[in-house]
């Protein structure tokens, strides 16, 4: 009768525990975010997006393709992110193993020397040996979901680390492309500046001839020489910037600093279309957004884990093996022993540790949610800025061409007028300086357009196409 009552009581208790367990931990739901009007730019509602293009189709320059591939193979930051994935995999494996019972083997010998007064019988030997060989196991029942939530948190961390590696990859591709374009822009500026110096040397010779003809004064000759040196003095600075950019690119490639093979800025081409898709696609394309969502999920499961610490834990331990006072009797049937213990541990007073753990977990969960939403807002801002930069560079292209044409005519006309004494050298000087400034600005316009495409590709989450993702 008592056994029957005990069975009923046990079944009822287990039922209450399972019902309570359902209410302790919560199921994860993806947080709702608003993506409408995220770009602040007029865009089509077509789902086609530049992010779905492999980087080889976006960057068609063969030199740049080789550099990007070298960076993907050797970049040290990318290697670090890969090792972080290995670390997350190990943590997840450990969490999975926590759901299984442990098993330990023990073998020991105990030698005891008793005092004469401790012996139960006078004259009995005061020394004693005991030999043991056993297996022990321990298992915690995951009634409240403590171990399960820890496993899910580690799994979310693994997915976050994989997304973080993709984010490093997309940023790396963009950094290599931007640095490459900067190098070619500096090369173009160096060529223009050198050509300008050669042209101004000819102007100096012309001014010296005009002085001999009393058309201009010695001051005009000196001004023409100063104008030549003002252009020439910028060449060392451009060379320094070229070397610095080569060093930056070498580090991205994971190699020692050295020269970089490259083409020319004039030969670079842009993708035919720059479709950005719909804003909601950022949630599945941008690796940093994905990583931020998994970070929130990990924090959510950590909060679940913290809730379970207020409830009793059920642990079952068992041990069995052989124990004997003589080594030769250790493996005999009479030496076999076994025990099993099941126990509940209910926290009563833990100096506020569990409350503090839960409070901190809830705070970290909110922090992760705010970071997730902020990451999405930043993603929209970056897409919007890249689109705006590209369109503004496109608008400047025609205007800059007209400006250069007008400035070139201004230089030619002022030089002709100077030969006949109808203009002073200040007008020639001003026209030449304006022309050089406009030519350098045209290079900046080209660079802006190229880097805008790079930034748009990165902002949309391009560069980790699944077919090419390692």
Strand order of the largest sheet: 1-2-3-4
- Work out the helicity level: 55-70%
What is the ordering of alpha helices and beta strands?
HHHHEEHHHHHEEHH
User: For the record, what CATH class applies?
Assistant: Mainly Alpha
The average pLDDT value, as a whole number, equals 85
CATH architecture: Up-down Bundle
State the helix count. Answer: 11
Number of strands: 4
Sheet with the most strands, sense and barrel status: 4 strands, antiparallel
Calculate Rg over CA atoms: 38 Å
- Secondary-structure-based class equals alpha+beta
Q: What's the CATH H-level homologous superfamily? A: Outer membrane efflux proteins (OEP)
Shape: elongated
Q: How many domains comprise the coordinates? A: 1
N→C terminal distance: 66 Å
Looking at the structure, the CATH topology is Outer membrane efflux proteins (OEP)
Stretches where pLDDT falls below 50 for ≥5 residues?
A: 5-10
* Quaternary assembly: single chain
* Beta-strand fraction estimate: 5-15%
Write the layout of secondary structure elements.
Layout: H1 2-24, H2 55-58, H3 62-74, H4 76-97, E1 102-113, E2 127-141, H5 146-212, H6 218-232, H7 235-252, H8 282-285, H9 287-308, E3 313-324, E4 336-345, H10 353-419, H11 425-459
Antiparallel strand pairs: 1-2, 2-3, 3-4
Helix pairs in contact: 3-5, 4-5, 5-6, 5-7, 5-9, 5-11, 6-11, 9-10, 10-11
